[in-house]
Amino acid sequence: VVAFVFLTGAPWWLNSDLGELKINYKLNQVIFFVFISSILIVTLIIACLVGYYQYTTKKRKKEKLEKKERELTKREKDLERTYAIKHRLHMITHEIRDQIVDVRSDKNKYPNIKLISQALCEKVKLYFSESIDCKDISIGVAIRIARKNTQNCKTEYVTVGRAGLSPGRDRGSVPLLSDEGLAKILQHDKGSQGMLVIYSLQKAIDAFVYTKQPNDTNFPDDIKSMMVAPINGWDGQQKRMLGILFVTSRRENTFGKKYTDSVGFIADALANLYSALVLP
Length: 280
Hints:
By secondary structure, this protein is of the alpha+beta class.
């Protein structure tokens, strides 16, 4: 009977809403599928957002930690460099003190000024090389000491020590006259505040502040800028410029105001030594 009913179609007594039920059933299936899919998509989006948030949070934390480590490393390096600079400065004053003690105690009755000056130039060079901390800059140092010219009885300044400069400069070195160029300015120019910072040697030559020397022609790349400070001592009657300290660079505009105190301090310390060495 059942087979007959289904084979011959719906009889008059069967509810005519059966087709609508099938349609509603299919519609409900579609709605259910869309609902489940929406939940899955929303869940997936939330999971992606949570995962992205966790990833970015971890990344930020890692970057902060790395930044702190870099800052700590930089601070440590800065501290190490500061200690190294102070150590270099201490070594200069240590050497000066030892030399003064030797002279005063007659351990060194006939001191070799050139050997002493050479050792000090090396230490001053190391100090400023550490202070400036630029690998592409070559620092040079020279010390000139006053002497009387036996022919004209004028004071002139001769080089007694140098470091970081071309070895051949010895052959072409000439005295600086006390009444010319830098020596004259250092002795008489109150506006110089006791020292000079020359940002460009060529400009200083053009302005007649610096008198060009044979070595400036022979070794044009040796010196492009410099700091110059007088080594002043007391001769028993008045202050006298015993010598001149030069700190040079192979690059222009290397030096500035922040280095002038160091140059002045070293020049004053050297004055104590050269007072003991050259003054009667």
